[in-house]
Prior knowledge:
By secondary structure, the chain is mainly α. The protein has helices at about 30-35, 55-65, 70-90, 95-100, 115-120, 130-140, 150-155, 160-165, 180-195, 210-220, 235-245, 250-270, 275, 280-290, 295, 305-325, 340-354; strands at about 20-25, 50, 125, 200, 205-210, 225. About 50% of the residues lie in helices and about 5% in strands. The strands form three sheets. It has a two-stranded parallel sheet. Helix 12 packs across helix 16. The longest helix is centred in the last third of the chain and has 22 residues, at about 305-325. The chain is elongated and about 80 Å long.
Amino acid sequence: EVVVATIAFGMGIDKPDVRFVIHHDIPKSLESYYQETGRAGRDGGEGHCIAYYSYKDVEKLEKFMAGKPVAEQEIGFALLQEVVAYAETSMSRRKFLLHYFGEEFDAETGEGADMDDNVRNPKSKTEAQAQVKLLLEVVRDTKHLYKSKEIVFTLIGRVNAIIKAHRTDTQPFFGCGKAFDERYWMALIRQVLVDGLLHKDIETYGILKLSEKGHAFIASPHSFMMSEDHEYSESEDETIVAASKATGTADETLMAMLKELRKKVAKQLGVPPFVVFQDPSLEDMALKYPITIDELTNIHGVGEGKAKKYGKDFVALIARYVADNDIIRPDDLVVKSTGANSSNKLYIIQNIDR
Length: 354
């Protein structure tokens, strides 16, 4: 039913009916993301791709690049920023993704457009004609020297080493867009890029350049409706991380009894309690109610050795508790299949895969 896989999964696997691809961590480039999500819906059916995004994941990937050569780091950071842009954008994700690979997509009528979360739940749009003109003029007046970050810094009036080196902070347009924040300008750049008013120069790791369409816009501005980006705050990240670490113990009473027994067993053997069983193992026991040593080996973090060494008292306690409280265990609901059925299933699956 579920395959937990590394990024290498599926290169040679012909499994056409994968319905969901879930990224628990953000990938390090849009190329990787596109290739990994391509596992879903190869039979022409629906494929749902869900990615969990937290800026902490991006910071972790940035740290991994720290020891690499400078040129490699620069490319790595540029690729990562595209992933961040994809995660935070509020425009049609399919349009954004296909634009990245140099393709066009109609966000209204294109195939699968109605499955996009941003198309289904559109963010409010605001008129940004004046801001687009300002952005394009800054790209033109800085002589196509800068990537997105420096363009945004020029607009909001923030100095860094590159801006100082080119003396952009002495120009009259420096800080001309400080009425809006960094996040706003980044969102606008993404949407202007997809609209074709700007393009990124690949040879120079993403320097922004005006297109012919961009020059035409400066000469004759027209309406440009901009949708606000999703906001992901640090505090929200913290809340999510904390929630994921919280325990999901179903039976608090049994959990307390198991902890008491663990303390007693540890004392008898003269070892710390965590050596017997760790908390996640006890939580899993309080969820699955194992009443035999065999069932105990399937508990998170236990294994055969530990089950045989420490398990006897624990399964006895759980069996007593289950009997006293008339508890229906998850295993009671499982219909056990015979070996013959299993081999039949395997034969069928192998033939389908061929």
